[in-house]
Specification:
By secondary structure, the chain is mainly alpha-helical. It contains 11 helices and 2 strands. A hairpin with a 2-residue loop joins strand 1 and strand 2.
Length: 287
């Protein structure tokens, strides 16, 4: 039982990893607490099911849905978030919360009241034995996708001009502005990439958690916990805390039950905030 719970905890951590990286990027560059991120997750899960029902192969869905949600994120930032860029953070929190409610309401009207499941491809329906532990192939695939996308994002952030601008805006926003970095254009791309990451996590998690209008709500709460534990704006902190949150949650559910697991998780977050206010690696913000 213990080994199975650990594996499931790592899978949960992989889903949180992709979701939380987007939250971290948006906050790091734009200082925006994006409550609509969970709604994008729900929208991508439902879009994946809809595209699959229309005959699109799973592999194509895994590409098309994130591209669509990423473009939606760009449009949202351009049309809405850019209008309040320099206003107090509470304004962006209220605005994105309202956006989340609006998107959720739209999803309800398009069948979001019913739980639907995205079918697992036949090629990933098997089970692999490793060290006496039987691992479903799909969950191995899910974890590998999360790890590879995260590694690719980190490499791109460190090697590309776009990544240089993102890191500059994240670490020293005033200096980045003085050096001529266009914050508006940069934020459009950051929100687009972050929304696409949320969409990937929504699609690959849909066979496990299902797809409905509010499926992203719990993920959003866990995602904020991940970002807070990792340190505001810290990508490596988000990576480590995603797996920590996943393991604490799943092990807690296995040994104590669902509500008790959440209590253990909240207690863990409080201890981390008291002991490491700037996150696991001490490179996050305290604001």
């Amino acid at each position: 039982m213990w080994s199975s719970l650990v594996v499931n905890g790592l899978v949960m951590g992989s889903i949180l990893l992709l979701f939380s990286l987007g939250l971290t990027l948006i906050y790091g560059v734009g200082r925006v607490v994006n409550f609509a991120h969970g709604a994008f997750y729900s929208a991508s899960a439902m879009a994946g099911v809809w595209l699959s029902q229309k005959g699109m192969p799973f592999w194509a869905v895994l590409i098309v849905a994130p591209i669509g949600i990423g473009l939606l994120g760009v449009a949202t930032d351009w049309l809405v978030l850019s209008r309040i860029r320099d206003r107090p953070m509470v304004d962006s929190m209220l605005l994105t919360f309202g956006m989340a409610l609006l998107i959720t309401g739209v999803l309800y009207e398009f069948g979001g009241r019913n739980i639907q499941n995205l079918a697992i491809p036949v090629s990933l329906q098997g089970v692999t034995s490793f060290g006496g532990i039987r691992l479903p192939d799909y969950r191995i695939f899910l974890s590998l996708v999360a790890i590879l996308l995260t590694a690719g994002l980190l490499v791109y952030l460190n090697k590309s001009n776009w990544g240089l601008r993102v890191r500059a805006a994240n670490d020293e926003p005033e200096m980045a502005a003085c050096l001529g970095i266009n914050r508006e254009t940069l934020m459009h791309s950051v929100v687009g990439v972050s929304s696409a990451l949320a969409a990937v996590s929504g699609v690959i998690a849909a066979p496990i958690f299902g797809a409905f209008a509010t499926v992203g709500d719990k993920i959003l709460i866990l995602g904020f916990m991940t970002v807070i534990m990792g340190g505001l704006g810290s990508l490596r902190g988000a990576i480590a805390s995603a797996y920590l949150v996943g393991l604490v949650l799943v092990l807690g559910e296995g040994y104590f039950g669902g509500q008790s697991a959440l209590m253990v998780l909240f207690a863990t977050v409080m201890v981390m905030l008291i002991s490491f206010p700037r996150g696991i690696f001490g490179d996050g913000r305290t604001e």
